[in-house]
Amino acid sequence: MAQELRLNDFFCGCGGIGLGFKNAGFTIAKAWDVDPYAVKSYMANVDSNVEQRDISEMTYRDVPYADVWSFGFPCQDLSSAGSCKGIYEGSRSRLFFEIMRLLNELRQNDPTRLPKMIIAENVKGVKKYLSVIENEYQKNGYSMQYQLIDSAQWGVPQKRERYYMVGLLEGVVSKFDFPIPSRKFCSMKAVLQFDVPEKYYVHYEKSVQIVASYLGPEIEFEVAQNRPLSTVSEYITGYYSQKDGFKQSDISNTIDATYSKGLGSNQYRPAIIERYEVDVFRVRKLTPSEYGRLQGFPWDWIQVVSDSQAYKQFGNAVTVNVSNAISNAMKNSIRR
Predict the structure, then answer these.
(1) Which residues contact 314 (CB under 8 A, 6 or more apart)?
(2) Could you write out the DSSP letters of every residue in 229-252?
(3) Spatial CA neighbour of 158 closest among 327, 290, 22, 328
(4) Taken in order 193, 195, 201, 204, is the CA torsion positive or negative?
(5) Fewest CB within 10 A of the end CB: N or C in the chain?
(6) Does the pTM of the predicted model rise above 0.90?
(7) Alpha-carbon distance 162 to 2, whole Å?
(8) Alpha-carbon torsion (168, 172, 174, 179), positive or negative
(9) What is the CA 249 to chain-centroid distance, rounded?
(10) What is the DSSP letter of 116?
């Protein structure tokens, strides 16, 4: 019988990494996050072995043995949409060094419990710090391989480029190959629900503005109210910004944690235009379930937090499909 493999899931969020690894056959040894709402979602949907905890207050004694440590450390200080303070000065992204501290403590005090592999994930802005991260990996006994991966190549309708940085414990794991993208195309229409509550529809004035930006100012149309969904003739998917209007697309732009603020900003946000007749439309946001599907979360996800918290959690998450593909590759490396 194959050996059971275990995962320690740091900065676990609502479980994008944890769910991907669990679907690959890993057992969650332990998961941690400082956000109590994320912990609540993780416990309801991924694994009960999760704890609300500030990593800066943890020591190596708090960490059980696991074959893999994962840490999608906070990206706010590295993202173009964030503070851009960097990995050293940013109060969030410098938490990467807390993981390195825990590894160092373990190496000094109980090296037999070091994980065989480690994996970090972050936004494209981490590129300038890859040499820093690799140096930290090496100081703790890990060789590093990294790759920029777009979630859209892994069966979700979202363009989302993220760096994945895998570490191999020297003398224990000798080889790792990143999985080859499936390039399985998925349209946004595949994530849509068809029993959408009224609260997700955009108010009349904004709907008129969005439809006009899509059709052009010379086209006459009507924005309907309270039309039954059974009479929708077409779902037009795309993304909208106050600056550029509605752009039709089969995949979403990169989603973020602030979708609950609505469609009125200059950031591109996924939106749905429902066509009822040739010139009759309605406009709505994605529901939290649809938002989660853009990240590969399942339809049977149990929402135990508010809509705003659900949008935040899914927007911050690692894409489940990508996590699952990488975790299977890591499993093969460990067993080899």
Answers:
(1) 14, 255, 288, 291, 292, 294, 295, 297
(2) GGG--EEEEEEEETTTEEEE-SSB
(3) 290
(4) positive
(5) N
(6) yes
(7) 31
(8) negative
(9) 20
(10) S
| Residue 205 and residue 263 in contact, taking contact as beta carbons nearer than 8 Å | no
DSSP secondary structure code for residue 326 in this structure: H
3-class DSSP state of 265: coil
Q: Interior CA angle at 260 toward 127 and 204, to 5°?
A: 130
Report d(CA 190, CA 185) in Å as an integer.
11
pLDDT by residue for the chain (336 residues), tens digit each? 567 999 999 999 999 999 999 999 999 999 999 999 999 999 999 999 999 999 999 999 999 999 999 998 875 544 445 544 555 554 455 889 999 999 999 999 999 999 999 999 999 989 999 999 999 999 999 999 999 999 999 999 999 999 999 999 999 999 999 999 977 789 999 999 988 999 999 999 999 999 999 999 899 999 998 888 899 999 999 999 999 999 999 999 999 999 999 998 888 999 999 999 999 999 999 999 999 999 999 999 999 999 999 999 999 999 999 999 999 999 999 998
241's CB contacts (< 8 A; 6+ apart) are 265, 266, 267, 268, 269
Q: Report the alpha-carbon angle 115-77-155, nearest 5.
A: 65
| Bridge pairing between strands 280-284 and 269-277 | antiparallel
Biggest alpha carbon–alpha carbon distance for the chain: 73
For residue 333, give the amino acid letter.
S
